[in-house]
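Hello Y.,

Per our agreement to keep a running log of every chain we model this quarter, I'm adding this entry. I've kept the format consistent with earlier entries: sequence first, then predicted structure.
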Amino acid sequence: AMMVVALCTTNSLGQCTSGINVQYIAVGSSAQFNSFAFAAEDTIQTQSGYTSPTNFWASSSEPLTDFNANVTDTAKVWIAWDSSATCYVYAYFSVDSTIGIKDFFSWHKITQNGVTNADAAAVYVNPTGSSWTACSGVVNVGQPACAGEGASTGVPSAISTFLTTQPGPTCKIGTSGCTSSTAGALPAAYCSQTSTSQTSAKYCFFNAAHADIRAEDTLYANSRALSSYVSTGGLAGLGYNDTACGANSTATVGCAFYESFGKGGTFNVVKFALSGTDPIGGATLPTYTELPVGAAPVVVIASDADSNGLGAGAPSYQITNVNRAVLAGIENGTFGCTGDLRYDGSGAGVPLQILHREALSGTYNTFEFTGVRQMEASSQSAISDNKQIATSWFTSDDSGQEQVNENQGGPGLNYGTCGTASTPPSSACGDPMYASSVACGSNGSALHLRVIGTGEMVKVVAGTNGNASGSAAVPDAFGYAFWSYGNLAPMASGCATNTGAVTCSGYVAHYLTVDGIDPLFTNPGDSTNPNGAYHAPQCYLKSGLPVCQGVPFTHIYDGSYPLWTILRLITFNNTSSQKTPAAVLQMYEDAEEVAGGTSVSGVTNLDDFVPYYNSINKTANTADLNLFVLRSHFKATGSGITPNNGIAACAGTYTGIAITGAIGSCTIDAGNDMGGAIITVNADAQFHDDFNGIGTNPSEYFGLHN
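Predicted structure for the entry above:
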């Protein structure tokens, strides 16, 4: 039976006055944030008893607290609900990939209303500091505009109370007036729990998480951050377990990441697990499945501010490409001058200001393991030791963004004396990062700095971040970001407000090809980009209903562009005690259509990623495969998860695929694939046909690295 969260409230419009019917509460990366907002606008209208209009509300800053670790991260959020007395509710909290997965898997044992040792979510919105007042316009660029009650009075108190309340049982079954059918005695329906045991069922807050990389890879990224920094250890640890910078003595809560521009941005590092019990809260974790959402390229971006540097020749740029050997050297501190990116023998050039994301983000890790630290189809299972002090320099297989000489003390280097969240560093500093590297002749030295989030990365490159006084000058900022119309919008100015192909009067940054390959178009200057070669295509996103120009993603489809990943949706899997939430699957299907060019709720060609599937059949929950390249999966050191590319189960049929997330079914993979070698679906299937059952039974083409 459908369970409704019933909360008392007053509302003159009648919305949510009888309770709320929660469908989808998600957390995770920004790469899927916008597409799923439009998916919610469509999905909500198909629900039985839906009452128009749909209300939409968004915020750029809400406190999402992990009550296991007692730390708070700032999240962007959107919420959609209908106008029924018992209203349908959808919401998405955008943090980063690893924090999103950690939040989904953060659970603790609670005693509540007579029930002892219930397994309950440990992360939800902190009532202190949250605000639910009316919003206006488009709050998060590339999403629907604030609408209905969201724009007039704000979020109904029934919804805000739900979002700021610890999930848990409302009464103990068997006591007076409390049965298994009493509202709130068991987890709400959106948690999809079938167990009637109050100590076995999972009282969830989130029923979905979104990541740029596989959950197994986020766990690796988190474990790497919480391992000791050793400069000769191939960067297997980044040092955020250092008590000198605030980690606790058990390394369950590590040092925070700080950005270098005094804007106050931080992200916390908290230990988590994907199975078994929560390492802090002790609760038994729910089991999960991962669904492939689509492929997203990481784009290398460069400031146009310096006409003698990265912006030379604009708009007929002189610096338009970086090969991966040079890219790795720039990121690890081997190179760092604009001359390193030129092909004319013109000398050192001027210093770069090299920007790094926080090491938990999916963007950072995709970039790290496809562009900075790659092994070119090596089968070696671990990164080799740093060779910096040997006669041979460290190679791409032991390169990393935290490798910079001056930063080899990890985040504890000069901690507390060189900068804070609100004070930009100006000398050698582990976190907030400030690390000088190579000298560019007499023009000064390259500088490495940290940003938090995609938004800050792009704004710093574009010169629109509003950096605090005392921040390092960044005329030749060099960074990276996942492509999306919203992410790269700050790279242009004076853009038209028409639908379709949009041109702009000015550009403040451009993107580079990698190994001569364009991430978005067939060729950098071809006619499909009305903004011109190396300019990020633009779309008018502030109407709330963007109709954009389609992006072909030619070299994602053919696998030749090296910096990309498969975006993931993580949710509960089907077992005897839980089911995969139907509303999450419905959102998933709608988001595939949003990304695939189908007009959904008035938005067209919001091509934020290459959809994994096409020809969605929402009645049968089937689809056809749209992307015929993948990354070879592998088993990371210390992982207990056997790799599975997800192709063998398809048995050569890639149409009418069931997209229900069933473990072991066609396209449902397992293990790590961050930086795995790019292969075709056909090659993996043929390998299975030829070699399955031979020797050690290699059922798929596993274990190869990029």
